[in-house]
Amino acid sequence: MKLNKEILLNVNNLCVRTIENSQHQNLIDGVSFDIKKNEIVGLIGESGSGKSLTSLNILGLLEKNKFDISGEIIFNGNNLLDLDNNAMIKIRGAEISMIFQEPMSALNPTMKIGEQIFEVFKAHKNLSFEHTTKRIKKLIKKVKLDNVENLLDKYPHQISGGQKQRVMIVMALSCNPQLLIADEPTTALDVTIQKEIIEILKDLQKSEKLSILFISHDLRLVSNISDKILIMRNGKIIEQGSNKNILNYPKENYTKALLSLIIHDKKRLKKLPTVESFDKNFKEEAETKKERNKRIKNIYSGKPILEIKNVSKFYNTSKNLFRNNKSFKALSQISLKLFKGETLGLIGESGSGKTTLSNAILKIHEFEKGEILFKGKDISKIKERELLEFRKNVQIIFQDPYASLNPLQNIFQIISEPIKFHRICLKNEVYEKCKELITDVGLYENFLSRYPHELSGGQRQRVCIARAISVNPEVLICDESVSALDVSIQATVLNLLNLLKKKYNFTYIFISHDLSVVKYMSDKIIVLYNGKIVDYQDADLLFEKPKDNYTKKLIKASY
Fold it and tell me: What pLDDT does 141 receive?
């Protein structure tokens, strides 16, 4: 085969099958693509599509006794699949490096940042301390990390998520690799930090003359960095082409569906398309201005169900023998009104006060100043019996459905527990109530006998929703409730939340860092920054005429 000198990596008919059981499941099925020198290739796929498995194959990190691997991965003229572990160790990190999805898991919590970076150099480069230090400082400057000496002397837990991800980039590029694999490098980062990381990678690609395989489930993110896009589904590359062709002229229905799942900016659809609905010739139906105005008028014509007046919350930051306590304002003079049937969006980056505010509303944390009134009653003054009723009426759906479900309980036990505690129905009616709830969230009766580990992420989140609504609440706090889900599953859950809202007349506080999701779901939006409300207005108007520079910054980073 004649090799193209411009091609750095060629994956040809890669197949991966499990050999641990008799089923021999195909995990990767005939994957073929190439990456040219100085090219950024985006690999798009949902959970289980095989994208991370493909990257692990390139790095030679799959246990060969557990998988049947065939095909070719040609890098610089060598088939990586033919190389032994010792040969791959020399390539891994030096010629092909990787930025992992979760930096906290990839970094050693017992070692200082500087020690970990130096360790990478020692493994692959025989350089003097002076040259190593010079290279590290140069890279740290390129990834825009400040106060180098101080940073190198810190442990991973002492720096932010964005800083940790920048450290991972430094470590990945320390040995001048030719190919960088970035596996979901912006997951769990704030939108402004995401944009910064993308810009850093683009600049480094040019200055370091890198080729990059950028793996993500976020098509919008990939489109901002890639020259070429690969669409992966069920272990296959179903479509590939230039950034322009994939975004403007998609051929496959699945690609068209993924593009349609990027929530519309200018129109508010009554129902979001899903991959399944797209296959059934989904027709868009947008809410008219007249319909929206009528709905908004109905919501805000009554009295608020929840009212927050000048709430402030303080946290102590230091306490030792030699220093007095220091405190900072997590919330500062927060005031808002929540109306029956409203969806109030709450956006802001990490540390803005979103979770602190929701915890104050739920009476999980006490607040030092101000009032929170639920149906006119100050929740700080209600008695124990009234508190139980309040907790029944104000429920929360958490970000991570797996962490919030007891792995030792089946789904029936999980959903029935609050029903029994709050005596929602008679004992002999509990099962039927659970059956009704599981059906309401789009699952089947047989799910009641299953355990959380037997369910997908989207199914687990539906169970969390069923549990939250089981006690007939009036207010539901959705705390990043779709952020951990694939885009198609996000659409399904968002549609479900809107359906349940209509059926039960719920009132939502919808917390998210995804501005497009918040805009789609919300009637009004609050923007929090450093514990303060910096913007508070109609959802559509906020995006058209943001009042604060911070709001403008968030919008710019998101679109």
Answer: 85
Q: CA separation (Å) from 411 to 416, 438, 446, 473, 559?
A: 8, 9, 10, 20, 39
Residue 392 lies inside a defined structural domain of this protein: yes
Neighbour count for residue 104 (Cβ, 10 Å): 14
- pLDDT of the residue at 21: 61
Q: For every residue of 325-344, which 3-state class applies, written as one string?
A: CEEEEEEEEEEEEEECCCEE
Instruction: Judge whether 328 lies within some domain.
Output: no
Please tell me whether the overall predicted TM-score, pTM, comes out greater than 0.70 for this model. Answer: yes
Residue 321 pLDDT > 60 = no
Identify the three-state secondary structure at position 379.
Answer: coil
Residues 54, 190 within the same domain: yes
Say whether pLDDT at 322 is over 70: no
Longest dimension (CA), the chain: 80
Is-contact 200 180, C-beta < 8 A? no
Is the per-residue pLDDT at 548 higher than 90? yes
CA–CA separation, 143 and 200 (whole Å):
6
Last residue of a domain, one of 214, 236, 260: 260
Q: What are phi and psi of 210, to 5 degrees?
A: -95, 155
Q: Which residues of 537-550 are buried (b: 16+ CB within 10 A; e: fewer)?
A: bebbebbeebebeb
Asked whether residue 346 falls in the same domain as residue 253, the answer is: no
Question: At which of 235, 260, 285 does a domain end?
Answer: 260
Tell me the angle at which helices 457-469 and 411-421 cross, rounded to the nearest 10 degrees: 20
Domain count, the chain: 2
Range of the domain at 477: 341-362+380-558
Give the CATH number, domain containing residue 418.
Answer: 3.40.50.300
Lowest mean pLDDT among 170-184, 356-370, 484-498: 484-498
- CA distance from start to end of the chain: 43
